[in-house]
Specification:
Elements lengths: L9 H11 L3 E2 L1 E6 L5 E6 L2 E6 L2 E7 L1 E2 L2 E2 L1 H9 L1 E6 L5 H6 L10 H4 L4 E2 L8 E2 L4 E13 L4 E13 L4 E2 L2 E2 L1 H4 L3 E2 L5 E2 L15 H6 L3
Antiparallel strand pairs: 1-15, 2-3, 2-8, 4-5, 5-12, 6-7, 8-11, 9-10, 11-12, 13-14, 15-16
Length: about 210
């Protein structure tokens, strides 16, 4: 198939992009509404934007012309938690993508246990091996679909002790769930370690801030 993107509508572009940009990590985001309702929703357009300070980016779409609950909560409170779900959580993660009312907590509806975090009363998923406690950095809007790139500074890393050693995270222990196109998911089937190649020394990277 060969097709110009200008000839496609949003739905077809979405299917093609999410079908080829794979696998994608999942940010299972907890946020809290002004009424205190804990929202839990998965987003797979998720990446690293900066290391110093540590900034992550998540693209959040709209429900028609209405901002999703996660976006509205983040803009109001300027805080959120990115939980990294394991493969064992796949069914709960998938179910949490359903569009529920703003007054309904996906965590309660799906019996996902929460635990306190160090950031303004926003809880994290208790079972997750990794929780990134974030504060809103900025937002940028892209495209005709008005997708919003939410960037957040990672205020704290909360990682299970058995999943990290000397700041090296063991991906096998985390067993992260990945998103493919459509209602399809994946996990790491193989894991290969190669000899290090030349890289910019840490002291040179740090000097760029001066």
């Amino acid at each position: 198939m060969y097709v110009k993107s200008a000839e496609l509508d949003l739905a077809h572009c979405y299917k093609l992009l999410t079908g080829v940009v794979i696998p994608r990590p999942i940010a299972w985001i907890t946020s809290v509404s002004d009424d205190g309702v804990v929202n839990l929703a998965p987003f797979s357009q998720f990446t690293i934007l900066s290391y110093s300070p540590p900034i992550i980016g998540v693209s959040i779409g709209h429900k028609g012309r209405t901002p999703k609950d996660t976006l509205r909560n983040i803009l109001a409170r300027r805080t959120f938690v990115v939980n990294i779900p394991s493969y064992a959580m796949m069914e709960q993660v998938h179910a949490s993508s359903a569009e529920l009312g703003a007054d309904v907590s996906e965590a309660e509806a799906l019996s996902v246990s929460m635990r306190p975090t160090g950031i303004d009363g926003v809880p994290g998923v208790a079972q997750a091996q990794v929780r990134l406690e974030c504060r809103l950095y900025r937002t940028e809007t892209y495209g005709n679909d008005q997708s919003v790139l939410v960037s957040g500074v990672v205020d704290a890393f909360d990682i299970a002790d058995d999943a990290v050693d000397n700041f090296r995270v063991d991906a096998r222990t985390i067993d992260p769930l990945a998103r493919l196109g459509g209602p399809n998911y994946a996990r790491m089937a193989e894991y290969s370690t190669l000899a290090p190649v030349g890289a910019t020394p840490a002291e040179v990277i740090d000097s760029r801030r001066e």
